[in-house]
Recover the amino acids of this structure.
């Protein structure tokens, strides 16, 4: 009977201590990044088929797809498809904290400095398939285009307020998580003492032959098992409470909102190239276009009070672009030409809705008679998280087939790794 009780107590203690032994570290928190952008592909922009020729510098989702359709062509059947992916988000980064994401080097005593080139790690690779019609030797030729693009934020500058806010809130979160960890550590230390005592008692039970002493040892073991169960439960409660602690949740939400803010100033760089296939014939393929461009963006929040209200912006863009290709001059698409595009864009963002207008002037360095411009307006609406619908209308480059009338859908997909670790410096 005594041996049976001894076995039951030993099994009960081991079973109930398993949650404690496998408990997770409560000193850090994973914060999911929200409002990551779903941009137009540089491969679309290269061929002048994107709703906008001036794309904002931004951190993109792990995977983005786009469908564009000209309202005036194709009987409503989309002919332009693109996708873009950000390799960084497909690899787990356990030490990627809020400071690294924001381009901040955290120093001692709360001091920090900006790392303006932090956005380079978020480079995106894009592909696009575009079908159009071109005039060649007085004949209308159907051309399929396969484009490849690379984009990255080269430089990113955050405001002083954003810098102070992210440091202050992350420090507050560290302090709160640290207190919970210390409190749990005290309980765990008591539990270790109880476990050591329980081990000693078990050894004595195994060797004790005196019945009265054995009963006393078993009674002591019951108390130790009960005490260990209580301490393990208290430790688990502290761990679980970090998920519902209102202070921790408040700091997490504030950090999430701060990370969704736009940088004050950013410079985006992109390169793209294109192969064309006439009449869907592979043997007719030729290298058609190459482009490289820089986009500068100044984002001014309409409200400066707190993080939660920084969702409305006026964005000012300036772009400079170099293109070299065979299909830039509509009068003779077989002649390779070099052009320089320069211009700007103004954009108003109000919550889910944005309205923008842009203008680009094209300087044809090969044939000055072919200088042209592009002017258009675009509306964009966020239907739901990572799903956008766009519409654009205006004049494209050139004097033929130059009406911009497009409807597009952009949506992004996450890899599940788009998060930062808060609570680390």
């Amino acid at each position: 009977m005594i041996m049976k009780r001894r076995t039951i107590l030993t099994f009960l203690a081991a079973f109930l201590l398993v949650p404690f032994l496998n408990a997770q570290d409560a000193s850090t928190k994973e914060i999911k990044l929200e409002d990551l952008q779903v941009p137009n592909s540089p491969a679309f922009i290269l061929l002048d088929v994107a709703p906008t020729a001036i794309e904002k510098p931004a951190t993109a989702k792990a995977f983005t797809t786009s469908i564009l359709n000209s309202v005036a062509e194709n009987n409503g059947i989309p002919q332009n498809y693109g996708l873009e992916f950000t390799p960084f988000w497909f690899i787990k980064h356990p030490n990627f904290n809020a400071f690294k994401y924001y381009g901040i080097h955290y120093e001692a005593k709360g001091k920090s400095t900006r790392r303006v080139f932090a956005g380079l790690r978020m480079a995106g690779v894009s592909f696009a398939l575009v079908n159009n019609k071109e005039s060649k030797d007085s004949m209308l030729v159907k051309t399929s285009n396969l484009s490849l693009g690379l984009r990255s934020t080269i430089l990113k500058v955050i405001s002083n307020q954003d810098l102070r806010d992210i440091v202050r809130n992350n420090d507050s979160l560290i302090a709160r998580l640290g207190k919970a960890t210390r409190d749990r550590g005290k309980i765990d230390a008591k539990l270790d003492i109880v476990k050591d005592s329980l081990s000693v008692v078990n050894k004595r039970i195994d060797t004790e032959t005196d019945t009265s002493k054995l009963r006393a040892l078993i009674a002591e073991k019951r108390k130790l098992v009960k005490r260990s169960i209580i301490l393990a439960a208290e430790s688990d409660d502290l761990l679980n409470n970090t998920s519902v602690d209102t202070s921790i949740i408040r700091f997490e939400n504030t950090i999430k909102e701060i990370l969704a803010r736009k940088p004050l100033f950013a410079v985006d760089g992109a390169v793209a190239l294109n192969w064309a296939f006439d009449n869907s014939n592979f043997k007719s393929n030729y290298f058609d276009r190459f482009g490289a461009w820089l986009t500068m963006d100044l984002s001014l929040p309409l409200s400066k009070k707190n993080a939660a209200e920084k969702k409305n912006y006026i964005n000012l863009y300036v772009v400079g672009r170099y293109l070299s290709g065979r299909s830039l001059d509509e009068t003779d698409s077989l002649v390779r030409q070099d052009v320089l595009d320069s211009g700007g864009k103004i954009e108003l963002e109000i919550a889910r809705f944005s309205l923008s207008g842009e203008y680009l002037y094209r300087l044809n360095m090969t044939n000055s008679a072919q200088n042209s411009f592009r002017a258009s307006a675009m509306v964009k609406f966020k239907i739901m998280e990572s799903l956008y619908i766009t519409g654009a209308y205006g004049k494209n480059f050139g004097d033929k087939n130059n009406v911009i009338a497009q409807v597009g859908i952009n949506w992004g997909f996450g890899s599940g790794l788009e998060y930062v670790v808060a609570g680390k410096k």
